[in-house]
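Record type: monomer structure entry
Structure origin: computed from sequence
Chain ID: A
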Amino acid sequence: MEEVVAVEYRIDRRSGVPAFQQIVQQTKQALRLGVLVPGDRLPTAKEVAETSAVNPNTTLKAYRELEREGLVEPRPGLGTFVRRALGRPETGTDSPLYGELVAWMAKAAGAGLEQEDVAALVASALEKQYASGTTAVTGATGTRSTGE
């Protein structure tokens, strides 16, 4: 039996990113982190409207985009279900890398950095690490999170 996963979309109306695109991005993030796995049912457009104050058509547009990318599939009368995961074992919230990142963020907060400061540092590090097209190879392993 499929699992209904409580995904709550957080829409930032000041970001300049359309709400449907934020839903697409947040769904992909949940797929990468293993919060959503194949077989999980996404919240209905009505549920998203109630929790995120977006028009149901906005959610449907996002779900159509995810379907076009082969990540979800609608099942008439049942809902929209995850078809394919994006995550790898190293990206789950139970991986050692995630634990190290959480510890680093706690250290950054303890040093007085605000969320925006941390986001800027992470964005800068991402750009530096991945801009050249080469990435460092890590030996980290882990198990895929089931979202529980």
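Annotation 1: The first strand starts at residue 72 and ends at 75.
Annotation 2: The chain has five helices and two strands.
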